[in-house]
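Researcher: Structure prediction, please.
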Amino acid sequence: MKIAAILHLCMTLFHQGYSNNLASCQGRCGYGIDSGYPCQCNTACERYNDCCSDYFTLCKDAATSCNGRCGESYNSQNPCHCNSLCSQYNNCCNDYTQLCNAASGATITDAELKSLSETLYTLDSNKASASQLVIDPQALVPDSQTSSQSDLSPGKLFKSVDENTLFSRPTYAALLNVLDNYKRMTGQAESFSSQQITEQETFLKETMLNTKLGRELYGFLYTKGIYGSESEFIEDLKNMWFGLYSRNNNVLDSSGFEHIFAGEIKGGKVSGFHNWIQFYLNEKRGVLNYYSHSFNGPWSNYPDVLGLQFMWDGYYKQVGSAVIGSSPEFDLAIYTLCYIAQPGKQCRLSLGGSELIIQTYTWDNSSYGNGKKYIASAYPVSM
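Model: Predicted structure follows.
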């Protein structure tokens, strides 16, 4: 009798546990109707009044959050989603960016970098053609001689530039308006008028919102959940590129844009200066003397990459690498992409089937927003 009683008790508890399990939505949220269960866990149960008692807690409340759901497969029963495509379809849960992007780091793979850079390369309709830009690289020197400060090229690097065609394009015109807003000596505080701030904003909008290339970059970053709107994208780029920080003398004397596009003088030598248009303008004015180049990329048309040695109004640049013949939007796009995807690292892109490596650096001494880092430098690796 005792053994029979124990067996009866065990069977009772087993069936109670099994029944309780069937009456729960644990692990069943969004499943289709199943008559084998005493209650259901999908939206139809609300109409038929046969939801499990924990349906609203487990399926309704939890279904509107990405807590524990990041990267899950698509389920049409869920009111919002937590996978990498939800940004594209505008159906992410409200906390997707906070929970899932933070958890995943909004990972951009090497394959995605190569694929997107090829697309940006193809979309660069504003790049210079062979008839619009003619260069004469002249002397090629080994890396061991780049510090010699020897003028080995009697002629200018830029033989001809079709300014009427190129500089009349909106993105070039916007860049030209911003380039002359800076003091090149570090240690001298930068300040901008309302007109100059407007010029910065115009440059970003013309390059990133008004070109197919810029919109392609934004669309990619949007699908990754990095930005939720165009306004958020532009505002972040404004801080990232034009936000001021101090390189010298504890004054706000520098920014990523100034360093990379315009160039600076620090410690008695040229710092930054990685833009071909700025090079051409200074060479044309007679304040920049081209000496030689130590690297010439594998590309037979534009954009190409050169590693340059030059003297800028009395200050020497040992190796100033630049993408040659590219549009302003192309430079801004690839540097931004690499800085977001792999900040402070080498970023491997692909242009026309040939590898282009971009090195970026973060500015670690100050930040903007919620601890975001300004861009310190970005340039093509020329070796």
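Model: The chain is about 40% helix and 20% strand.
Researcher: Thanks, that helps.
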